[in-house]
């Protein structure tokens, strides 16, 4: 248990790193506009990482070659940056993380480009609300299942689904630590009690459709909705559990 509760010195590092991650993320979000593309965005991320003297959390992870994950429209997670131009009506899930003084910070947001359909805007906002409800449940004396249940009850219905196989997680010296925190389904650590000092990457990953089935493209990374029929959205923040409630370390 002690190994997943951060010390005060670790928490200070994570707080400082979270501010840097959020600042870089803000720069990247402003470049998600019509006519740009995710390949250019990844190159800009490389420039910003060097400018802020931090490392990418993703580049080199299990052989991944990029600084961001680029999740356009039907891409759920782990999308590889490419030269497809953003156009009005698209939604783009930007997933980004850094390593600061040996500790990982992780964050994601889905950005609406130009004019999106009202129902798509509603879908994106409900995914964000689902994540926020999960964050609110990350309190001392709750369990991991309380976070999952908070996210699920605020989103899942006949129209919207949350992913079961791609999950939030503990974070710190490693990008992915225990516990697993699914938006739907049951975590192997579902009954783990939450204590102050725990740090989680809480994420809601959703599908605008009747199923959360998915497929992985031939590149071995890009995960898309079933037959690429349905849109997907994601939001993620790194969260510290304090005695008096959750603290978002990586504001979006």
List the helices and strands and how they pair.
Layout: H1 8-29, H2 38-51, E1 55-56, E2 68-72, E3 75-77, E4 91-100, E5 103-112, H3 118-136, H4 144-153, E6 160-162, E7 168-170, E8 177-181, E9 199-208, E10 214-216, E11 223-225, E12 231-242, E13 245-248
Antiparallel strand pairs: 1-4, 2-4, 3-11, 4-5, 6-9, 7-8, 7-9, 9-12, 10-11, 12-13
Please give the share of residues in helix.
Answer: 25-40%
CATH topology: Creatine Amidinohydrolase
Percentage of residues in DSSP E strands? 25-35%
Low-confidence stretches: none
Total domains:
1
Q: What CATH architecture would you give? A: Alpha-Beta Complex
CATH class: Alpha Beta
Structural class of the secondary elements?
Answer: alpha+beta
Radius of gyration using CA atoms only: 17 Å
Task: Report on this structure.
This protein is α+β, with helices and mostly antiparallel strands. It has one domain: Creatine Amidinohydrolase, CATH 3.90.230.10. Helix content is 26%, strand content 29%. It contains four helices and 13 strands. Strands 6, 7, 8, 9, 12 and 13 form a six-stranded antiparallel sheet that branches. Strands 1, 2, 4 and 5 form a four-stranded antiparallel sheet that branches. β4 and β5 (103-112) form a beta hairpin. α3 (118-136) packs antiparallel against α4 (144-153). The longest helix is centred in the first third of the chain and has 22 residues, at 8-29. The radius of gyration is 17 Å and the shape is globular.
Task: Describe the structure concisely.
With 252 residues, the chain is an alpha+beta fold.
């Amino acid at each position: 248990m002690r190994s997943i509760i951060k010390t005060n010195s670790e928490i200070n590092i994570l707080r400082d790193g979270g501010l840097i991650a959020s600042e870089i993320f803000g720069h990247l979000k402003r470049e998600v506009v019509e006519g740009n593309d995710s390949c250019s965005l990844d190159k800009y991320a490389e420039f910003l990482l060097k400018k802020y003297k931090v490392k990418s959390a993703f580049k080199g992870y299990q052989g991944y070659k990029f600084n961001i994950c680029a999740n356009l429209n039907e891409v759920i997670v782990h999308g590889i940056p490419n030269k497809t131009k953003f156009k009005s009506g698209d939604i783009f899930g930007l997933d980004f993380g850094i390593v600061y003084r040996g500790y990982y910070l992780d964050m994601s947001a889905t950005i609406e480009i130009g004019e999106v359909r009202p129902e798509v805007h509603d879908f994106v906002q409900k995914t964000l609300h689902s994540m926020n409800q999960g964050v609110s449940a990350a309190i001392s004396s709750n369990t991991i299942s309380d976070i999952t249940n908070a996210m699920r009850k605020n989103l899942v219905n006949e129209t919207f689904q949350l992913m079961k196989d791609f999950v939030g997680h503990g974070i710190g010296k490693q990008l992915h630590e225990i516990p697993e925190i699914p938006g739907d389904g049951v975590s192997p650590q579902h009954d783990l009690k939450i204590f102050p000092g725990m740090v989680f990457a809480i994420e809601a990953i959703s599908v605008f459709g009747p199923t959360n089935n998915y497929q992985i493209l031939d590149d071995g990374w890009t995960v898309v909705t079933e037959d690429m029929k349905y849109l997907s959205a994601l939001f993620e923040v790194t969260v510290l559990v304090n005695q008096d409630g959750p603290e978002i370390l990586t504001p979006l």
